[in-house]
Amino acid sequence: MIREYLRDAATSLIAILIGFLVGAIILQVAGYDPLYIYGSLINSAFGNYYVTLNTLTAMMPIMFTGAAATLMFKSALFFIGMEGQLYIGSITAFLVGHLLQLPAGLHAIIAFLAGGLGGLLWGLVPGYLRARFGVNETVTAIMLNWIAIHFTDYITQYAFADPKATIARTYKILPTAVIPKISPEVPLSWGFVVAVIATILTGYLLYNTVIGYEIRVVGLNPHVARVAKISIESTYLRVFLISGFLAGLAGATMVLGVFNSIVYRFSPGYGWDGITAALIARNNPYMIIPASLFLAVLRSGSIGMMVGAGVSNEMILVIQGVILISAAVPEAYILLARYVKARR
Amino acid sequence: MGEMVNIHKIYPDGTVALRGVNLDIYEGEMLGLLGENGAGKTTLMKILSGLLKPTRGVIRIKGKEVKFRSPKDALSYGIGMVHQHFTLVPQFTVLENIVLGSEPKVNKLMIDWSRAEEEVKELMKLTGFKVDLNAKVASLPVGMKQMAEILKVLYRNIRLLILDEPTSALTPIEVKSFFNVLRKLREGGVTIVFITHKIKEALEITDRIVVLRKGLVEGVISTTEATPQLLARMMVKVETKPIIKPEVSPSREVLVVEDLWVRGDDGRYVVKGASFCVREGEIYGILGVEGNGQKELVEAIIGLRRYDRGRVLVRSNSRLLAYVPPDRTTEGLVLEMPVCENSILGIHKMFTFGKLAINTRKVVVHANELVSKYSIATPNIRTPAKYLSGGNQQRLVIARELSKGSDLLIVVNPTRGLDIASTNYVRKLLVDLRSNGKAILLVTADVDEALEISDRLGVIYNGRITGEDLAMNFTEERLGLLMGGALRE
Amino acid sequence: MNKMNLSPVIALLDSALRLGTPIALTAIGELIAEKSGVVNIGIEGIMVIGAFASVVATYATGDPIIGVLVGVAIGALLGFLHGTLSTYLYADQIIVGMGIIFFGYGITAVGNAIIWGQPGFSVGVSTISHLVVRVGEASVSISPIFFLTIVLAILTYFVLKYTWVGLRLRSVGEDPEVADVLGINVFRLRLYATVVGGALTGLAGAYLGVDWGGRFVSYMSAGRGFIALAAIIVGGWEPLITLLASYLFGFFDALQLTLAQLYGKQVPPQLFQMIPYIATVVVFALFFRKARPPAAIARPYRRE
Amino acid sequence: MVIYLVSLGRTALTVLAVVITAIVVAGVMYAAVPKGGQTITQTVTVTVTKTEAVTQTITATQVVATTTPTQHVKAAVIIRKRGDLGFNDMAWLGGQMAVKNLGATVEYFYYENVPMAQYLEFLENIVRRGFDIIVVVNFMMAEQVAELADKYPNQKFAILDAVVEGKPNVMSIVFKENEGSALVGALATYLSKSGTVGIVLGMDIPPLWKFEIGYKWGIHYVMNETGRKVKILWEYVGTFGDPNKGKEAATLMLQQGADIVYHAAGETGLGVIDAVYDYSQKTGKKVYAIGVDAPQEWIRSGYVIASMVKHVEVAVYKAVEDVAKGSFKGGVVALGIREGGVDISKPEDIKIMMGIAVELNLMSQDEANKVYNEVMNLRNSIPSEVWDKVMLLREKIIRGEVSIPIPTADTIAELRQRYG
């Protein structure tokens, strides 16, 4: 067991190394100094207290969506609709934060939960279609993502557009609903702590609760689940709901803790980052935390890389792509190791 | 015809299957390959048919050394194998399956379906098989699948036909005609290797018998010189003792099934008015060739399938039914999960704090208890179930089901694919349970098993119980007729 | 002058053809790969790289036909990469696919920056010539790639259904163990299928680049690869229904654009923009939900 | 053993596949730069020199000129990217003008693909680098600028296209795009033979409304003047980044009979220009596009009749100049036609663009000349009385004789009712 974990971790590390190596080659070809650029990447992700906190902020939504994706993949559903759930979650969190009058603190909590509820409701549609009629979740995910995005556009540009804002965004939420910062000087909000807790709770849910047990059984072997009287349909539905809730929370943290309103297309693909994190973490919920840290470093560090070294941050996409490709072939490294051993 | 010299096979997981087997196959003979489960018969033949590569050893065909990289290479030497697990694509039609891989072509690209059909029909005439060529394989009963499988191999013009336990899915009557087909093939010049663990069959059909035991050749003997006792001694060292059943007078009816009508997946009735009852302190056996409605019948009883007519009455002390499914790897266990998590499958809701969180300590205690009580050989309870041997997996399933504490135990093919020791263990366990007052419904396709341990026996054919009697009252012939549908009592 | 105008219906259909073609091409290509049991969700990335390569090649040579060919070749190459990893090295196909998407988005923008000084978009290049069809007094120009798409879909249907290649391909996707026993080279067949899939996706990219568009713009595939994935499922892994599903999506997209032009005053455009996606979900849930994927899909095949 | 060796073959195969893919992708990228059949080594050198050339033009800006009387200014200009031959390049030009005329030191920062959640981080990184003025050419950063203006009260900011109110250290520079759009609307209406004109817009957001309403106002102005009824086709396609969608929307308009289509849709608008070109090529009908932000005539020379130019360079220059002269003041500066902020494109504008294109090695001097001539030919084919009428409207706007409505969330619905 431990050996398996070690092997997984080693695979991920090798994948990351290869990714950076290929990135370095491309950088070199493009006429940059890779060492300098990677240096500025790390530096701007961890260079000082302040930027480190920024990196953690970037990590926040990815942990939520990563946990959501892990749940989906654990139950063997290929649902990639976190991006849409995130947007819908941001809408419901915003509505509660903007329309309701509640005491500070409580307001933030209720708005936050409302965000999760929004994502949950958005998960209900594909979840119900899948559980009741067997409608393929991949199709609904792809379509619902776009529907959610355009609907959020409608919210930001029409329904709740702030006429005073120069950018496409909604009204600000009430100050009572803002998720407070950990301390006034730092940009990091308590949402981060909640995200970490939510990720760990997802792990706990999967490995230490009845629901999680059933999810894993259904994901690994639906026939057994049927015989063991575990309802596959309701397990699927639960997964859709919990996962939707988590993805919705991702949107809520962004609205309540970062933007304080819904900004037009604020997500640069946090839903997809979550899927990537789940894949890098090999569906281990606890590994979501380092995986999303890694992605956050790429996202956050790439800004410093651009400002400091003038590299287009698409280079980060290239590196991310190569990392993923090399992470997909653990077999290759094992074979390679064996080959090296045999040669000696 | 061919010889295999000093064949070793070690699987990647470290299992040693063959430790230096030498085998000669003579042109035109019918060679029996006899041995218990795990003796290495199938592995040896998979190597000969190119599906597996030997760890060490040489294969010679007609004196020439050959290296098979794939079954295709073996086929090009005229060697074909009919596997025990069907190698048919379930979603394809029979004809598609038969021609797959050696399709007759019109031009370079198109398949000549009419020629294919003619050729296969020719083969069917030769063998006497009757299969609907345009039916989807998934919808066929087991016997039909077996025929399709054999037709598929014959279609490839093979000179050496390897059959792996070909009769396990056939009725006794079908076996008879199947043997005739084999004889006809041998007359036509086809060499046949017949893998079996049934001594009677080996004696009946083969010319020469090679007995394997634990990856080694135990002996080679001409069939005319062989006796059942001799072969049995070669196969197994431990003499099996018949199970002694203490007298119990069955009393209370725990399971009553009355006039049950159940539909299959395709919507047609497959259980057509089955009625029987299982009493405390007895094993009630339902014997039949697979595909006669057993699966649906059991599923209806345990509540996985709706039934249209009739009723199922369970008078058990527990709401949970103990059920040992026919296939432990796909229905009984989650192979990737550790033993301890498998030990609570289906009863996991009982191991909780409150209603939600699983009480890990309680699970560990429970798992350890099962492991020690039923002597399940496992490194520890955190080992994934896939690393357990088949026998231990089955013990785990049975142990878990018994821990449900139900009066009624439903077991389906409980010893399929198990070695002798595990088989004996399981059968003895079932008898003990019965003697202690449990009601056991045993659904099996194994005649010996049914006769050995059940008290009463019902034979199922085409969705109906066609004969019911005390197990000791059945003769083999009567059973054969009932199972084959030639008799209805 | 007004007489020359196309009737709105013809204009709508014309538009639907263009909007549907890249999706249809990608879907047909990916369908071939999926029939063999390989899922390549990287088609989105292959499409954008194909578009980039075709534009670059056209820019370099001035001949859009060469652009198309280069796009196809690059697509095939990426298919080869995915196919090799996911067959011979038992890679997790989803992860490889995601990787190709990121790689594709990134490398094309970087490449654009190297060639044209900035990652955003390229200069305009010439596009391949169209067939001009007269409709009444007006005329509609139709891309040869559209006809090619239809031909390819029918060809795929034909090959899968009537030829030995198709039979073997399907067997590899349904049950690789059986296919292997019968001497069919599972690995090679899957690799070839993925290469063909990549090539068609590259063609779809070239269509975006040097047929429909005439220039490269970063991220120009704009999620069409995912729509193609959906189209395959909606089409139940049947080439002709998949083709239909792709053009149906194209139709709804064109309808959306038309409606937004007609009723922009009354209804916010975002609501129109949702139409094709909602329509797809509804049509799928109502009519096509029974689709069954090839049994061995996304499952790497290992011997022993 | 055998198995492992076979598998090793697969490993080698895979490595080979990766390497080949990388080489071919890179090769194709490079092969494109020099036209003709050069070898790869040659192409690499060429590319490197080109990259250097671009870097040189940027680093050259850091050379301090000593002959100016004004205060030396160290300025940061934040643009999306370089080389779009449009909005961002013009902002860059403004910085260059400041270098040349004011001796300022200018550094450029590119925000393309910085996630919105990290705008603050991005800006703050720049603030810490220490600049006299930070010119933000991205209206989406308005709120972050406001926040940082409070946090760093001594840091001067200028933001374009957005209003940050009540901060003494933030200068907000906005453009009256409605005025410029009115001019091209009028031009389109005068020139339209079919009596149908179109406009394709990106996102349906307040800044874009000014283009829409201004254009429609210009059309109505001409309709009132000539009494001719002109049909307006307009559409928000919902994205700035999908040229194929833009092309489709424009093609639908052309098929409905529009013969002049204006766009305000970023890169989606490139599709509009391509659509006009394609439609003309394939049907033989002559139709035209109107560019936006920058003089876009060069994109498809001979098919873009004019552009509504936003003189971003003027704005950027003004911000730096104010700091240099010590006259920097927070507050809103609105640049209309009168202030030189927006206008219909002039031949000089196109010349400047071509200059940038040559400098960036995007075109050879010959090509640039050819493009320029084609653009001028098209321009000269417009009857001079049309130009006169458009210029008359321009004068009226400058003199304040007509006023073009500025749409807000409250008035947009009503304005759309009025202008169609």
What does this structure look like?
The complex is a heterotetramer of chains A (344), B (489), C (304) and D (420). Chain B folds into three domains: 2-236, Rossmann fold; 241-321 and 405-489, P-loop containing nucleotide triphosphate hydrolases (Rossmann fold); 334-403, no CATH class. In chain B, 32% of the residues lie in helices and 26% in strands. Chain B contains 16 helices and 21 strands. In chain B, strand 16 (352-353) and strand 17 form a beta hairpin. In chain B, helix 13 (390-402) runs parallel beside helix 14 (420-435). Chain C has a single domain (3-288), classed as ABC transporter involved in vitamin B12 uptake, BtuC (Orthogonal Bundle), CATH 1.10.3470. Chain C has helices at residues 8-35, 43-61, 64-87, 93-116, 144-162, 164-174, 176-181, 186-213, 224-234, 239-263, 269-273, 275-288, and strands at residues 131-135, 138-142. Chain C has a two-stranded antiparallel ribbon. In chain C, strand 1 and strand 2 form a beta hairpin. The longest helix of chain C has 28 residues, at 8-35. The N and C termini of chain C lie far apart (73 Å). By secondary structure, chain D is of the alpha/beta class. Helices cover 53% and strands 15% of the residues of chain D. Chain D is built from 14 helices and twelve strands. Chain D has helices spanning 2-31, 40-60, 87-102, 119-129, 142-151, 177-191, 206-226, 243-255, 266-283, 312-324, 347-359, 365-380, 384-399, 412-419, and strands at residues 74-79, 105-110, 133-136, 156-160, 170-175, 196-201, 231-236, 260-264, 288-293, 304-310, 331-335, 342-344. In chain D, helix 6 (177-191) packs antiparallel against helix 13 (384-399) and helix 8 packs across helix 9. The longest helix of chain D is centred in the first third of the chain and has 30 residues, at 2-31. The radius of gyration of chain D is 24 Å and the shape is globular. At the A-C interface, helix 6, helix 11 and helix 13 of A face helix 3, helix 4, helix 9, helix 11 and helix 12 of C.
Please write out the topology.
The complex is a heterotetramer of chains A (344), B (489), C (304) and D (420).
Chain A: H1 2-29, H2 34-46, H3 49-74, H4 82-99, H5 106-133, H6 137-159, H7 191-208, H8 210-220, H9 222-227, H10 232-259, H11 270-280, H12 288-309, H13 314-327, H14 330-343
Helix pairs in contact in A: 1-13, 2-12, 3-7, 3-10, 3-11, 3-12, 4-5, 4-6, 4-10, 4-11, 5-6, 5-10, 7-8, 7-10, 8-10, 11-12
Chain C: H1 8-35, H2 43-61, H3 64-87, H4 93-116, E1 131-135, E2 138-142, H5 144-162, H6 164-174, H7 176-181, H8 186-213, H9 224-234, H10 239-263, H11 269-273, H12 275-288
Antiparallel strand pairs in C: 1-2
Chain D: H1 2-31, H2 40-60, E1 74-79, H3 87-102, E2 105-110, H4 119-129, E3 133-136, H5 142-151, E4 156-160, E5 170-175, H6 177-191, E6 196-201, H7 206-226, E7 231-236, H8 243-255, E8 260-264, H9 266-283, E9 288-293, E10 304-310, H10 312-324, E11 331-335, E12 342-344, H11 347-359, H12 365-380, H13 384-399, H14 412-419
Parallel strand pairs in D: 1-2, 1-3, 3-4, 4-5, 5-11, 6-7, 6-8, 8-9, 9-10
Antiparallel strand pairs in D: 10-12
Helix pairs in contact in D: 3-10, 4-5, 6-7, 6-13, 7-14, 8-9, 11-12
